Amino acid sequence: MKRPLSRLLVVTAAAMGVLPSCDNVNDERIPYAPVYITFTTEAEWRLYGTPAASDVRRFIKSEKLPARFPYTAMSETGFGGVMLVCDALGENRAFDLACPVEVSQKVRIYVPEGEINAQCPVCGSTYDIMSGYGHPLSGPAQKDGYWLKTYRVSYTGRPLEYIVVTR
After folding, report:
1. Whole-prediction pTM
2. What is the CATH number of the domain that holds 91?
């Protein structure tokens, strides 16, 4: 009786995508770190956020980036910082700035001037950030299936929290 049940569990797990495969998406290489960025007014969002398609903004609390952003005692910006992106459809997305190949707080992805994909300055991997998924396009990240760590972006509609980025 145990044999059919264990076989059923393996088949069920495989069907649900629980078992590892050769084409695994690995977006958990970046260590856990809290994320909490709020925009309290629409004006603040327009000044510091990403209100238009293809806008990209980096948030690194320890380096006070962006300059003059009103960080609070509760604000947190992840492991390597947060990249806030408004994709081609106008949806806001957020990724950890740490390259998942390098796994270092100081090796941060960036978007080269005039381009729409993020790149690591050390390993050279590139990532699609405009699709909202952060999947690797080239380099060691593509070879090993290392995706960018994503964070949740939500609109609360409350007067004191216009947009919130969390883990």
Report:
1. 0.81
2. 2.102.10.10
